[in-house]
Amino acid sequence: MWDSPLRTPYDIRFRCCGFPVRVHPLFWLAAALLGGDLIQSGLHYWLLWILVVFVALLVHELGHAVAYRVYGCQAAIILWIFGGLTVADRIPGRHASRIIVSLAGPFSGFALAGLLYITQRLTAWQNDEAPHALIFTYQLLILVNVYWGILNLVPVLPLDGGQVCRDVCEWIRPTKGAIWAWQISLWTASLLALYSLMCWWETTHNGGPLTRLLPVWFPKGSWWTAVLFALLALQSYQHLHQRTHRSARF
Fold it and tell me: Measured between alpha carbons, how far is 177 from 57 in angstroms, rounded to an integer?
């Protein structure tokens, strides 16, 4: 489900920082659906949302690609319905190297958000005279890079945090590390799916105890994250079942 998508005649291909980039048509569909509510505020805000998602995911995947290049690997970037994917001709052999490659994606987004924030503070361009669309784009770029970066760091496979968790577990216990990582992934994804479902329910029913207790800045779940983590929990369960079945046969 999370493998590289098949090529289509409608793919957009270009190079960025020397890396080949392929944008699958389902990427635009997913981004458009996620920001569908913004159409009520104006078509241009909806289009700006799609642009922000494109930039944020491209920067994220460029972080992975640059890290691969540092370790002598050739990498390519794919943007599609499940977000972004960076594929390389080989994987670095050391656990520490793979952990750095995994962390390079979300931390690239954090760096972009930090750079935008510092630039705004130094120039003070965000004022009453600034175009509202520009302020919207600036704030959205920061929110998407920060919150999606945090989302990617949760220990759920195949997200970046899950990759880090698996490398750490295999580093500690080579024979059992992968199973530990999939178990952590299953429980974490299940809890996050439940949390997201509760947040979405309370949001659509005039609030509730959970959303009232959480601080305003704390990431809230949605129907999208509920579906995402439910699928990831199912995938983790399938991997664990296959490993258990394979071990029982031998």
Answer: 29
Q: Is residue 118 part of a domain?
A: yes
Report the C-alpha gap between 138 and 212 in whole angstroms: 28
Tokens of 3: 């493998």
Query: pLDDT digits over 172-198, tens only?
Result: 998 889 999 999 999 999 999 999 999
250 located within any domain: no
86: which strand partners? 77
Q: Is 116 exposed, middle or buried (0-12, 13-18, 19+ CB in 10 A)?
A: middle
Report the C-alpha gap between 236 and 185 in whole angstroms: 6
Q: Name residues whose C-beta falls within 8 Å of residue 212's C-beta, 6 or more positions apart in sequence.
A: none
Q: Which two tokens stand for residue 225?
A: 């994250």
Claim to verify: residue 79 and residue 42 sit in the same structural domain: yes
CA angle in degrees (0–180, nearest 5) for 26-30-32: 115
Is pLDDT of 2 > 60?
Answer: no
- Structure confidence at residue 250 (pLDDT): 46
| Cα separation of the two ends of the chain | 27
Residue 196's domain comprises 154-245
Number of folded domains in the chain?
2
Give 222's strand partners: none
- Same domain for 158 and 138: no
pLDDT tens digits along 5-62 = 788 999 999 999 999 999 999 999 989 988 888 888 888 899 999 999 999 999 999 9
